[in-house]
Specification:
about 230 residues; mainly alpha; Endonuclease Iii, domain 2; Endonuclease III, domain 1; two-stranded antiparallel ribbon; elongated
């Protein structure tokens, strides 16, 4: 058995780097286009949509936001709405009291601290009510084109199934993926992994032994992979 570049010819995906390179290449073939899943027209409406997507599907968010944005699609208009009115509209997205209050509060904060503009740094975004690191990463990547690697449940699951990370935490998964993949690929790749996770390597439809990439990377795997949440 010979090795080329440290990779065994018999076990070509025995290292994280080799697996990452294959995943990067194959997902680019499967998803040459990477449209943003959440409907929006600017950084503010994307920020609101991402906030609403917590523990909610993108499909549901896209059904909900047109009504909300018809009333208020700027921080000034949103800050003028009563929280109760926002709550009523976003209720289908779940956690509506908390999300409605955050939407109202962050809109007011954008007016008071950022001249009504969505800030362009991770630090300033994460200071906004209801905005955590993942939400900030999505906005930085999808609104401003800044390299980021937002990790959602699909990415966290697939990174473990593909042995790109041990899944100790979402933060560790993000750090591992950033180290494995070229920075210039992050914004497209995180969407490609999400698309594949929704369509093929789903939580219930694949257990680490069924989808194309799992079978390619681990042809001898027989047992289901138990992933951390």
């Amino acid at each position: 058995m010979t090795e080329v570049g440290g990779v065994s010819e018999r076990f070509p995906f025995s290292t994280r780097a080799a697996r990452a390179a294959y995943v990067d290449r194959r997902l680019a073939e499967l998803y040459p286009e990477t449209p943003v899943p959440l409907d929006h027209k600017d950084a503010f409406t994307l920020l609101i949509a991402v906030l609403l997507s917590a523990q909610c599907t993108d499909k549901r968010v896209n059904l909900t936001t047109p009504r909300l944005f018809a009333l208020a699609d700027t921080p000034a208009k949103m800050a003028a709405l009563p929280v109760a009115q926002i709550d009523t509209i976003v209720r289908p997205c779940g956690l509506s009291p908390r999300k409605a209050q955050a939407i109202r509060d962050l809109s007011q904060q954008l007016l008071e601290r950022h001249h009504g503009q969505v800030p362009r740094t991770f630090e300033e975004l994460e200071e906004l009510p209801g905005v955590g690191h993942k939400t900030a990463s999505v906005v930085m990547a999808q609104a401003f084109g800044v390299p980021a690697f937002p990790v959602d449940t699909h990415i966290h699951r697939l990174a473990q199934r593909w042995k790109l990370s041990d899944g100790r935490s979402v933060a560790q998964t993000e750090a591992d993926l950033k180290q494995l993949f070229p920075r210039e690929h992050w914004n497209s790749l995180h969407l490609r992994i999400i698309f594949f996770g929704r369509e093929h390597c789903t939580a219930r439809g694949c257990d680490g032994t069924k989808c194309e990439i799992c079978r390619t990377l681990f042809p001898g795997r027989k047992r289901a992979v138990v992933t951390r949440k």
